[in-house]
């Protein structure tokens, strides 16, 4: 079955042309090549972002530490968040580490590794704005497209309007410009953004939901899944994870 699926994948690739970049490889191929290919978004501070030309952040450093444990070099691909699930199915990289919270819907098309952090979706608004779920009634809420924030905002039901943006920095700009009344995003992203913008007049409000965040990979790539989970367990054991968590969050972000 697996062989057939891979054969069909190869045929689809030839037909599509230019797909010599197909990369979601089996573990043995990755190991022999010495390099693993990971995707992230690069616009989700402090998890994955650019410092000048340099891609960095908690998840970038976690992935680099995991790759090191596995004896591999890591090569990055920067892919828009809303394109990542489809890109995994098109085999454009080996795995993605881009703050995907587990959802049953996503699990239909990709597999989730063990979580590398636990977190929550939270509301942010101007000081006098809607800072609780109840206060969002009739208000305009901004979220990043294709996220658990969008899903959960829809569940709130009686909000006035839901506006979607390509990435969180755009939602924050819209909130600053008062084009929206509230922003729902990750609690650490909100904290990081507000810390960097102390004069924005925006504050964090109520937490809306909790989620477990994992690397995602092509379905049924069992050996690669085992290796990534093993690498993650190793950096949790030797203190690397704890040091990174302290560096970025000043607390333990693991799902303990
Ligand atoms: N944790 C959210 C989700 O699972 C957001 C992911 C990253 C967005 N830049 O949808």
Automatic annotation (TrEMBL):
InterPro entries: SBP_3_CS (IPR018313), Solute-binding_3/MltF_N (IPR001638). Pfam families: SBP_bac_3. It comes from the Bacteria. Residues 1-24 form the signal peptide. Belongs to the bacterial solute-binding protein 3 family. Residues 35-252 form the Solute-binding protein family 3/N-terminal domain. The keyword Transport does not apply. Keywords: Signal. It is found in: Cell envelope. One of its GO terms (cellular component) is cell envelope. Gene3D superfamilies: Periplasmic binding protein-like II. This is Transporter substrate-binding domain-containing protein. The lineage of its organism: Bacteria, Pseudomonadati, Pseudomonadota, Betaproteobacteria, Rhodocyclales.
């Amino acid at each position: 079955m697996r062989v057939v699926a891979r054969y069909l994948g190869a045929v689809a690739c030839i037909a599509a042309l230019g797909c010599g970049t197909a990369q979601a490889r089996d573990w043995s191929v990755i190991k022999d090549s010495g390099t693993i290919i990971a995707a992230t978004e690069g616009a989700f501070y402090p998890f994955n972002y650019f410092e000048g030309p340099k891609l960095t952040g908690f998840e970038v450093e976690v992935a680099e530490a995991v790759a090191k444990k596995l004896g591999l070099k890591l090569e990055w691909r920067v892919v828009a968040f809303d394109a990542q699930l489809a890109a995994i199915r098109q085999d454009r990289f080996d795995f993605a580490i881009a703050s995907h919270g587990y959802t049953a819907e996503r699990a239909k098309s990709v597999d989730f590794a063990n979580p590398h952090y636990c977190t929550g979706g939270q509301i942010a608004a101007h000081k006098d704005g809607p800072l609780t779920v109840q206060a969002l009634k009739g208000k305009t809420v901004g979220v990043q497209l294709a996220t658990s924030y969008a899903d959960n905002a829809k569940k709130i039901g009686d909000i006035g309007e839901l506006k979607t943006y390509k990435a969180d920095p755009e939602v924050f700009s819209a909130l600053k410009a008062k084009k929206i009344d509230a922003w729902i995003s990750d609690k650490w992203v909100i904290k990081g953004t507000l810390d960097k913008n102390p004069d924005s007049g925006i504050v964090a409000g109520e937490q809306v939901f909790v989620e477990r965040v994992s690397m995602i990979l092509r379905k049924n790539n069992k050996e690669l899944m085992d290796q990534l989970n093993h690498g993650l367990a190793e950096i949790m054991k030797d203190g690397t994870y704890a040091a990174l968590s302290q560096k970025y969050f000043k607390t333990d972000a693991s799902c303990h």
